[in-house]
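Give me the fold.
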Amino acid sequence: MYYGPELYILPNDTNANKEKNPDNVKRVMRLLENGTKFDSIFAMKNRLHMYTFDSFIMAVARYPEFCNIDQINDTPDLDAICIKELATFFAHIKQETFTTKTTMDAATKISTTETSFLSSSFEGTCKENPADYISANKECNSTDHPEGHWWPCDESTKIDENNVLETVYCGRGVMNIKGNYSYGGFGLATTGNTKEILGNPSEVGYKGDFAFLSGMWKYMTPASPRPSMHEVVIGSW
């Protein structure tokens, strides 16, 4: 499955020449200190194992304009605009992937709540009860919804190895892409066809690189008549 240029050299490749990386990848790796700051923002003890810094960098490499364009300042400051893009992207994925856990001290009866980020990859209980989200497929009917014509749904009812109904287009990934129009659009941009992701949407919820890439696609892609988040941040809209 093709989903991006193989131009990047990941942070854990200590013997590699990272100067071969695209400019935006080098900038992100430098600003995030090769993952140290990423691990500080998203504590490793709480986040899902699939959400690695390497997976995030793979998504960054797929979109060379991310962290690489400044149309706000007369004299471009790409580091400053990259910090703004990272802050915006991270704020959105925090909102979409957080979970909370409340514990009570037996002695004091005082409860504390801990919030974790990048600790989920499915909307609500979609992972355990995907049938509850069958409404996410409501636009599959091409007669009632144009989206069903452009992004035809996979109508199979197969269950994957994790006992999840794959063909429910509920929210998955770091930005919870949802609906056949999102999975179809993401699939077209990522693999060159609509069917691969529409037929296996659960990959977005189980693979860290796809989870981050789906979020980067949503961040970078306009949704007419609205501009993309990226365009707003860099000042081109």
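Residues 130-220 form one domain.
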